[in-house]
Please model this.
Amino acid sequence: MLWAIKKKMYRAQHRVMKTVAVVLPIPTPELLTGAGCVLQLTEKIAARGLAHPLIVTDVMIRSLGLLDGLIDGLERAGLRYTIYDEVEANPTIESVEVGRNFYKKSGCDSIIAFGGGSPIDCAKIIGARVGNPYMPVRWMKGLFKVFLPIPPLFCAPTTAGTGSETTVVAVITNPNTHEKFAISDLKLVPKIAALDPALMTGLPPNLTATTGLDALTHAVEAYIGINGNDFTNQHAERAVRLIFEHLLSAYERGEEMEAREGMAQASYSAGLAFTRVYVGYVHAIAHSLGGLYGVPHGLANAIILPYVLDACREAAEEKLAALAVVAGLGEAREPPEGLAHRFIEGVRVLNQAMQIPEHVQALREEDIPLIVKRALREAHPDYPVPRIMTRAECEAVVRKLLPEER
Model:
C-alpha cells in the first residue's frame, strides 16, 4: 500500500514537471558550428567587452595541443587568459575550489570551458562558486539553488557526448562520501557554444565510443520518459538518427570530419532534450558507480543502457519501436514489440562493435545495496521514468552488471 502511494506521488510530481518543462524559460546558447569556429568564439568574447577569461580544461587536452587554436584567437583579440588544467575525469568539490581560487587570484572576468563533460561541469560549478561565494557546493545540490548569477560562461566541447554545452546541469563528486550529485539551474547554461569538429578528430576510439554512447543515453532516456514534448522528442529523435549514422564512422575513422560534425550535432540535440525532461535509471546507476569506483560516466552509461531498456521495455514499447525506425533498424509498419526488441539489440550491437564491455569490472556484490540506495535516491521522485522500479527490481538490474566470474 505504501509503495502504491509513493508511486502516485512520484507521478503527480512528474505531471507538474511536464508542465513546467514547457513553460520554463530555459536559455539556449548562441551556437557556432563548423571547423575552426573556436576562433569565432574568441572574437565574440572580445566583442562583449571581456578581457580575461579563465580557461578550464585538463592536462591531457593541453598536452595534445588542442588549446593552441583557442589561445591563438585570444591573443589575436588582445585578451589575457589564465589556464586551469587540473580537472580530473570525475571532478570533485576540491577541484572546483582550486579553480575558483585561480579565477579570483588572476582577476578573471569570464570562463571558457574547453574539453569534455568533466571540464565543462567543473567550469559551471566554478562559476557558481564565484557568483555565490558564501554558498558551499554541497548546498547547491538539486534544483535551482544557484541563487546569484555566474560569470559569463562559454564552451568549446572536445568530445561529442555530454551535451553539457547546452544543459542546466553539472555533476560533481564529493570525495569524502564518494558520491556524485547533480546541480541544476538555469544560470549554468553557457552564453555561447562552439561545436568545432576539428577539435574532435584526434579523440581516441575508446573515448569516441563512450562519449557517443553517453549522448545516445541522453537522447533515449529523454525520449522514453513520460514527460517528453514535441520539442524534446524532435531533438531526441534527431540525436538517435545522427548517432546511428555517424558514431561507428567516427570510431573507425576519427579524422572523418562529416562523422565528427554529425556527432557534435547529435550531442547538442540530446542535450537540448534531456535538460528539459531529465534522464532516468541509467544515469542514476552510472552516477552511483562513478562516485564509488570512479567508472567514467560515458562508459558506465554505455554498459548499463541495454539492461535498463530490457527492464522497462514493456512500459516504453511504443517509444522504443519509434526509435528503432528513426535509427534505421526497421519500418513503422512492423509490430511495436519486435521493433522495441530490435532497438535494444541495436544498442547492444553498437556496444559490441566498439568493444564496450557487458559488465562493470570494479563492481562488488557487497556494494550493491549502497549503489541501489543512492541510485533510487537520485531517481525518485525527479526522473520521469517510463516504469518506476522497486528497490528489488533496481537491484536485479545492477546485479547483471557484476563481472561474470563473480
Summary: The first strand starts at residue 30 and ends at 33. The first helix runs from residue 2 to 23.
